[in-house]
Amino acid sequence: MKWCGLLIGLLLLCPGASAAADPLDMSEIAPGVYFYEGAQEDMSAENLGAIANIGFIVGEDSIAVIDSGGSARQGEKLLAAIRAVSDLPIRYVINSHMHPDHVFGNHAFLGEAPQIVGHAKLPRALTARGEFYLQRLEETLGEVAADTQVVPPNVIVEGTLEIDLGSRPLVITAYTVAHTDNDLTVLDVTSGTLWLGDLLFVERTPVIDGSLNGWLAVMDQLAAVEASQVVPGHGPLQSDWPGALTPQRVYLEALRDQVRRIIAEGGTMAQALEEVDGGESGPWLLFEDNHLRNVTAAFKELEWE
């Protein structure tokens, strides 16, 4: 009892450690498929950087993580949630793309010695931006960013890769430039659950960090994939497929068409920033934070068509 009291006292003196051990509140969206819906917010110390949708899939022999979260602290909480469900080995941590809110939980899983799976272009992207991302994370999250590191993939995907968790096949597909130049999806064949990463935003403003035209083309490819439900990178689980793509498509097509018109009329980027409104696709969360960035990216791309 004396040792128990000492342990409790130590935990009370180290609130960060006890918080890190608390599991994320996951939803089981199909047998063996667990989903955490990220906050529709910008990263902050209060939300631990937990703004992206992440999850895991349990097979007969092993477990795969689908995106690890926005900080080592969130990754620890995801690991605790997994261990509350199963003690099977975590064989895979799959990163849907390079952005910090999806990959910065990787460090929490290194003790499990998983294969870190990513797009063939993910290592280069993390090398180019990783230190900047870490700096911004530390500035934004403060002490919550402790132990967060850039952990690159050790298994890369070009085209498709099939893995098996034990009577549970997953199909991982890499795409050409779209939201970024290193996006991939994960299809759980057993449940028909398609994890889209940031190739799909729901309710939150889509962000172009790759190619507007490329993203629209990839969305056509995605629409042909059969799925019973889809997990977007941000926003609630979707059962209307491929209908869930429609609001994002309307926004991106309006952005493309409006910017093209201004360019064709000899207009400037300043004019585009003033006039392009994204059409009738909204309302979108965090629109003021991201729309002007999208207009700028679209203008730079489309003026060279």
Overall description:
The strands form two sheets. This protein has a seven-stranded mixed β-sheet with strand order 1-2-3-4-5-6-7, with no helix packed on it. The chain is of the alpha/beta class and 305 residues long. Strand 4, helix 3 and strand 5 form a beta-alpha-beta unit. The termini are far apart. The protein has helices spanning 2-13, 15-21, 72-85, 100-103, 122-141, 212-223, 246-264, 269-275, 287-302, and strands spanning 27-30, 33-36, 54-58, 63-66, 90-94, 115-119, 155-157, 160-164, 169-174, 184-188, 193-201, 229-234. It is 36% helix and 20% strand. It contains nine helices and twelve strands. Mean pLDDT is 93; it is low at 1-20. The radius of gyration is 20 Å and the shape is globular.
List keywords for this structure.
9 helices, 5-stranded mixed beta sheet, 305 residues, 12 strands, 20% strand, 7-stranded mixed beta sheet, disordered N terminus, alpha/beta, globular
Structural class: alpha/beta
Query: Mean of the pLDDT scores?
Result: 93
Structural Rg: 20 Å
The CA-CA distance between the termini, in Å, is 73 Å
Our estimate of the beta-strand percent is 15-25%
Helix content class: 25-40%
Output the strand order for the largest sheet. Answer: 1-2-3-4-5-6-7
Q: Secondary-structure element order, as H and E?
A: HHEEEEHEHEHEEEEEHEHHH
Low-confidence stretches: 1-20
Number of strands: 12
In terms of quaternary structure, the protein is single chain
